[in-house]
Structure formats: C-alpha cells, structure tokens
Write a structure and sequence with these properties.
alpha+beta; 16 helices; about 550 residues
Length: about 550
C-alpha cells in the first residue's frame, strides 16, 4: 500500500524525470564549479536501514539507493534485471527461474550469492523478524504458513543452486517482478546480520550495502549523513555522482529557504500556502503519486445509515471533486474517476485509471433525490454523520474535511455532518475496529498492479475499512487473482468490473489522486521520482 497507513511507499510506477535549464543565480555549488555533490533533505529523522523491517518512506528512500534487489525500476517505470541476469516464468506462472550476474559483491568486497537472497527472504518471513511487509510474500509457497508460525522458514518456496534461484508460487502473481524491486526482497548477508543481531541496521556502520551507494555518518540518532558511491556495485560505471549529502529539515518553510539560497537541490512545498507562493519558480513541479485519497464508509452494521446504498450513493454524488481540488488543494491533485489511481499500470498502452474510468460526476439534484429515498427507507427524517481524520499523515486533512462538511450539509437537507480529528495511530485502530462512521484515509500501491487497491473492497481484507461484503465483488476478485491472473487482458477486464461495482454500490468514495508539489534544481539530470516503491532514485542523478 504505498501504505500511507503504515507510513510507507511501496510498488514501482515511474512518474517524473527531473530535467531542464539552469536557473541562474542559484545552486552555486559552494563556489566550486567542479563540485558534483548533490544536497537533499528528509522531513523526518531516519528510522533504520534493515531492509526487512523498514516501513517509512524516507528509510526506504535511503535503503533503495544503498541496496538493490534482483530487479530495479528503469526510467520508464518498468522492472528490469539488476542483480539478476535473467528472470523467467514457467507457462503456468507458478515457477520462476532467476539467474544472478557473476561477480556480484557486497560493499566490504565479499561475494554476494544466491544464498544471500534465500536467507533474506526466509528472515523477512520469520515471525521473530516482525517484518510489517512480510505479507507481500503471500502467494509464494508456504509464506503465509511460515508467517503464522505453522511451518519452518526453511520451507519457503525459494531454493538456490549455484548462481540460480528457483521460486515456487502457490498461485500466479502478476506483481512478482515488481516485488523484486522492493527493499523487503533485497538480499542480506547472514554472517553480517547475525554479527550485530538486533543492532543490525541501526547505524551506518552496522549495515552492509550492495547498491549504487554506501551510507556514511549516521549513528542512529543524528540528522546529517551522506551517500557515497559504492566502488563494488556491479554497475558502478554508470553512477555519476560521488557523494549525496542528506540532512533532516522538518519545517518545510526552512527547506524552501535553503533551496532558494542554494543549500538544497530540492524542497517540498506541500501546503497550499507554499505551493501558491512558489508556483512561478522555475524549479516548481507537481509530481503525481500512485495514491488515492478516499472516504471509507463503515458498513459493518455499526452505522445504520451507511448500510443504506442510496445514502452512500448520495454522498458520492454530492461530492464535488473538481471544486475540492481547485479550492482546497490549489489544483495540485487530480479528481478521482476510479479507486485505482493514474500512473500505476497500463492496459494495452492505456493508463488503467482511464481504461476503468467511472462516472463520479457531481449531481446535486440526483443526490438529493437518492438521499431523500434513503431516509425514507431508514424511517428517518434526518441523520448525523461524523467524518474522522488524522492531521499527521493525510496532507491538508482538516481543510478537506471542513470542505466536505460544508458541502454535504448545505446540499443534502436532513444531513448534519460533524468532524473528529485523532492521532494517526488511533485512526488506524478505529478503522480496524470499525469504530468510526466516515473516515478520510489514503492508500498507495504495494506494487504496480490494480489489485493492490481493489483488494481493499474484498470481504475479510485486513485493510478493508469499509467493512463491506459483496458476493459479486468477491467472485470477480477471486477470478482476477485466480483463473485470469496470467492473462493480462482478462485480468484487466475483471479489474474494470471491480471498479464498476465499487462505483455502483458506492462502497467507498474516491476523492482525488494525490500529487506532491516541490521545488527541484533544474540543473540536475537523471533524478527519478517513483510514484510507488523507492520514492527517489539517485543512481543516475548528476549535476550538469
């Protein structure tokens, strides 16, 4: 879930390549025209470097540049062999044969082998490791049973023979190649991990690297550190930048000032005020993310009104997504026309969100008609609904909720809307416990395939905060994940059908596809943003 609900970003769609003309008067490189060092900031302190256990966006950014998996996303957003020389699937999609490149090394000069991959995967599935992303392995033979403590981790469906890996699946996994690019699937060296035990990955010196860079200067608590080119990286010849300096800057206004004075090469402008103030800057850009902000409707039975389809349909129909984007979000996001966001995957060259587009248009009169009919079916003349949100994860949450409260109350006679703001962790728990009415939340991709979103409306999914159960939906969902999993055309048609059910039944209310306004030095090339997965890829980044 580029799981904003677990503080993460996962999956693999490329969104933007930063390039452009030099902005005169900025980025003087500390007076040295030969200085190739790049300078970036993180808005929160670094949490760790253990690829098996990290969950937050910024630790994943660092680990994704100092480590590497069997595959890596290219500039077009497609997984390509990296540590692997080749990745091939059997005709039934259940067996994968992966051959590693020869001569792979760790940052200490030791050999990197197929056994390092096996060890890392087994460790990630081990209950003792407590990896929050272990569920991504579901579908690989025995993964679920191992995580449940029912089967020994040595029985995971991955075997090494020389430089060749054989992976056995319980069912076809269309997202398999995408997963191979994510840090939870990176190799680890057993002797090094066991040497430091629980302290592994807690400092730069207690971590081993195999990616384009190594990490220097982090003692576990300090806020300044750097990436340094890894001479043992298999593709070191294509890494152009010898050093990237990083520092934690928690106030966006401070980061913007540092950017404008040449002390940073990038800064987020992720508030409406900062975005408006910097729109004319040559370095201003809006980077889309494969994340959908939506409203979950509690259909567990705890909220009588929301078990009425016409009430939910009315709420969806009276939501003016275009106005929300223009008036509240300063036009930085895209009004949703499906639950699955743009930029995640394509169907025969067409973006899936376009292929599966639904009619989420604003229609006040029809909404009022449906709402009145829904009240009649409930035997009520009026109802009160509470919108719950947190303000520490969903950007501009208070402004969005305020807008929805005003719009819904004004345009649906008989509806009173109240607000509730809670800490992020409480919102998560409330969602799990069905202890809410309407919840503002967001979801990002685990991998570059629509099922990572559509799973959220299936019966029994742990992250289904709608708590809905729809037999037609589940049947089509099982078909997409089963019989049609290896047929891209049929699977896409199934997924479009799922989007249709979400819309017709008003299971949830997709509001907008999130985007990230930022300032980026136009004097940098090869600096990639990924909508999901490792957010920032510095491998090919360089100063002109």
């Amino acid at each position: 879930m580029k799981n904003w609900q677990k503080l993460t970003l996962v999956g693999l769609a490329l969104i933007a390549l930063v390039s452009g003309t030099r902005a005169a008067g900025l980025w003087g490189n500390s007076g040295n025209s030969n200085d190739k060092t790049l300078r970036f900031s993180l808005p929160t302190p670094l949490n760790g470097l253990d690829s098996a256990t990290i969950t937050d966006e910024y630790s994943i950014t660092v680990v994704g540049n100092v480590g590497e998996g069997l595959m890596r996303v290219d500039k077009n957003g497609k997984p390509q062999p990296s540590l692997a020389k080749s990745v091939k699937s059997s005709s039934d999609g259940k067996t994968w044969t992966i051959k590693l490149r020869s001569g792979l090394k760790w940052s200490d000069g030791s050999k990197l082998t197929a056994k390092d991959v096996v060890y890392a995967w087994q460790r990630a599935n081990d209950q003792k490791t407590a990896s929050e992303y272990a569920y991504l392995y579901s579908g690989i033979k025995n993964a679920d049973a191992i995580q449940a403590g029912k089967v020994d981790k040595k029985n995971l469906g991955i075997k090494a023979s020389g430089n060749t890996l054989t992976v056995s699946l319980e069912k076809p996994m269309p997202q398999f190649k995408s997963l191979l690019t994510f840090p939870t699937f990176f190799p680890q060296k057993q002797s090094f991990v066991e040497k430091y035990g629980k302290k592994y990955g807690t400092t730069a010196s207690k971590t081993l690297y195999n990616g384009p860079y190594t990490f220097k200067g982090w003692n576990g608590t300090n806020n300044k550190f750097k990436l340094v080119k890894n001479k043992y990286y298999w593709d070191a010849k294509n890494v152009k930048t010898p050093e990237i300096d990083l520092q934690v800057v928690q106030k966006p206004e401070v980061a913007v000032h540092m950017y404008k004075t040449g002390k940073l090469d990038s800064a987020l402008v992720n508030t409406p005020q900062l975005s408006q103030a910097n729109k004319t800057n040559k370095g201003y850009q809006i980077t889309p993310q494969a994340t959908t902000v939506f409203l979950a409707y509690n259909q567990s039975g705890n909220v009588k009104a929301l078990n009425n389809k016409k009430i939910r349909q009315a709420l969806n129909m009276v939501t003016n997504r275009s106005e929300l984007n223009s008036q509240v979000l300063s036009g930085t996001s895209t009004p949703a026309t499906s639950f699955t966001p743009k930029g995640l995957s394509t169907v025969n060259g067409t973006d899936f969100a376009t292929y599966a587009k639904q009619d989420y248009t604003y229609n006040e009169s029809e909404a009022q008609k449906l709402f009145k009919e829904g009240l009649s079916e409930l035997g009520e003349k009026s109802i009160t609904l509470e919108i719950e949100a947190d303000t520490d994860r969903v950007a501009n949450a208070k402004d969005v909720v305020n807008y929805l409260q005003g719009q819904w109350s004004k345009n649906l006679p008989g509806l009173k809307v109240t607000e509730k703001f809670v800490p992020f962790k409480q919102r998560l728990q409330d969602g799990t416990d069905a202890n809410f009415q309407v919840m503002l939340t967001q979801w990002g991709a685990d991998y570059a395939e629509p099922t990572t979103f559509l799973d959220l409306a299936s019966t029994g999914n742990a992250n289904n905060y709608n708590h809905n159960s729809n037999a037609d939906y589940d049947a089509l969902w099982n078909k997409a994940k089963g019989a049609d999993a290896t047929n891209d055309t049929k699977r896409a048609a199934d997924e479009k059908g799922l989007e249709k059910i979400i819309h017709q039944e008003a299971i949830l209310n997709p509001l907008y596809y999130q985007a990230q306004p930022e300032l980026v030095n136009p004097n940098i090339t090869g600096f990639y943003h990924h909508a999901v997965g490792v957010p920032l890829d510095f491998k090919l980044a360089a100063r002109k």
